[in-house]
Amino acid sequence: MDDRLPHEKGFHVSWDQIHRDSRALAWRLDGQGPDDGNWRAIVAITRGGMAPAMIIARELDIRVIDTISVKSYNHQDQVEAKVLKAPDAGLMGDGTGILVIDDLVDSGKTLELVRKLYPKAHFATVYAKPKGRPQVDSYITEVSQDTWIFFPWDMALQYVQPYRGKD
Ligand SMILES: O=P(O)(O)OC[C@H]1O[C@H](OP(=O)(O)OP(=O)(O)O)[C@H](O)[C@@H]1O
Ligand code: HPA
Ligand SMILES: [Mg+2]
């Protein structure tokens, strides 16, 4: 399989980059919660939201963290978004004071589903593509719709031939 198709461009994110961008998102969210600027809890959309959620929780000193498991893709093929595991209902209520974190918004289908469940929550992603932007309240970096974002947990360092390598 060509690992870029059907997307034209690849945006490769290192651990260092996701750490910096997640911190930038935490900075943007700091003091924006409804209770004296505070947020009640973080909910990470698994699995991709867990890494940024951990970094943001550390920066904002939030200790209550739950997860919602949503599956929307089989590798790069989009399937119907489905909730596989919901967060604690008592914690969530209508979502007021809850920060819902994901690594990116692409078509917006995942956030649309979660937003229906918790309409008062604040939805934040590190990266956003134009189609999904209406679904996200805060994000850091936008990439074009035809870009596939490669995260460090899906990659490994490997040798590459020099430009003037032997064929
Ligand atoms: O805006 P959308 O088009 O819905 O796409 C965005 C979602 O797709 C990816 O998750 P995926 O379902 O691949 O699961 P994963 O996080 O477990 O890798 C990504 O982490 C987002 O959650
Ligand atoms: O661009 C992407 N990268 C990784 N996972 C994704 N899930 C939807 N879009 C993407
Ligand atoms: Mg995901």
TrEMBL record:
The record places domain Phosphoribosyltransferase at 14-159
Question: Its membrane topology, per UniProt?
Answer: Peripheral membrane protein
- Give the residues the record marks as binding guanine: 106, 149
- SUPFAM superfamilies documented for this protein: PRTase-like (SSF53271)
Q: What EC numbers are recorded for this enzyme?
A: 2.4.2.22
Question: Which catalytic reaction applies to this protein?
Answer: IMP + diphosphate = hypoxanthine + 5-phospho-alpha-D-ribose 1-diphosphate; GMP + diphosphate = guanine + 5-phospho-alpha-D-ribose 1-diphosphate; XMP + diphosphate = xanthine + 5-phospho-alpha-D-ribose 1-diphosphate
Its localization reads: Cell membrane
Binding positions (5-phospho-alpha-D-ribose 1-diphosphate): 47-48, 102-110
- What sort of enzyme, by top EC class, is this? transferase
- Function according to Swiss-Prot or TrEMBL: Purine salvage pathway enzyme that catalyzes the transfer of the ribosyl-5-phosphate group from 5-phospho-alpha-D-ribose 1-diphosphate (PRPP) to the N9 position of the 6-oxopurines guanine and xanthine to form the corresponding ribonucleotides GMP (guanosine 5'-monophosphate) and XMP (xanthosine 5'-monophosphate), with the release of PPi. To a lesser extent, also acts on hypoxanthine.
The name this protein carries in UniProt is: Xanthine-guanine phosphoribosyltransferase
What organism, scientifically named, is this protein from? Pseudoprimorskyibacter insulae
Q: What is the lineage of its organism?
A: Bacteria, Pseudomonadati, Pseudomonadota, Alphaproteobacteria, Rhodobacterales
Tell me the gene name. gpt
